[in-house]
Design a protein that fits this description.
The chain is of the alpha+beta class. It is 26% helix and 43% strand. The protein has an 8-stranded antiparallel β-barrel, surrounded by 4 helices. The longest helix has 14 residues.
């Protein structure tokens, strides 16, 4: 699957949350993300990502292992994504280290997620705060089946419509990665 996603800086978080709440109930979750790479930085050099994420919700905790391939859309940063649930994240961390991967960066994201139906698509809208980064961000994504020549451009156009309905302007879009922003913050 390709994750057709746009991310934006949110200038009026309360207003965006109000508009999202009008569409459905959000759920608060905290993501603990650890990104891995091989010692030579090969994944990063190929624009690929390997991540273990543990999601702490109100009543549940779940973990997932994710591999993201190189961008298929430069303007949005959308990537193929392959993800699977993990029963024992500690074992997966050990497994990845045993295979020669090393943690590159780990950080926390505080999220409020909204499942949406819009423009004939299932979408996920996520308001995001990363404690080490100033500001609030909004991610809106939908999945496109890469095996059936899914139209990423059309999916991104639909995501843009939803962003506009939520009060997000095109000039607020960003492709900056949280990993890069957190690394830059820590380097200061």
């Amino acid at each position: 699957m390709i994750e057709a996603e746009l991310k934006a800086y949110v200038r009026a978080p309360e207003e965006v949350m109000r508009r999202l709440e009008a569409r459905g109930t959000g759920r608060a979750e905290v993501y603990q993300d650890t990104y891995y790479d091989d010692p030579s930085g090969g994944l990063g050099d190929r624009d690929e990502e390997l991540r273990v994420r543990t999601v702490h919700g109100t009543d549940t905790t779940r973990s997932v292992l994710t591999f993201k391939g190189a961008k298929v859309d430069e303007a949005s940063g959308s990537k193929p994504e392959h993800e699977t649930g993990v029963d024992d994240p500690d074992a997966v961390h050990k497994l990845l280290r045993g295979l020669g991967y090393a943690p590159v960066i780990a950080f926390e994201k505080r999220c409020r997620n909204y499942d949406l139906e819009a423009r004939g698509r299932r979408m996920l809208a996520t308001l995001v705060r990363v404690p080490e980064i100033d500001g609030t961000f909004l991610e809106v994504e939908t999945l496109v089946d890469e095996d059936e020549d899914g139209d990423v451009t059309a999916a991104l156009d639909d995501v843009r419509v939803v962003l506009a309905e939520l009060g997000i302007a095109d000039e607020d879009l960003t492709t900056e990665l949280y990993t890069d922003a957190v690394a830059a913050h820590r380097a200061r």
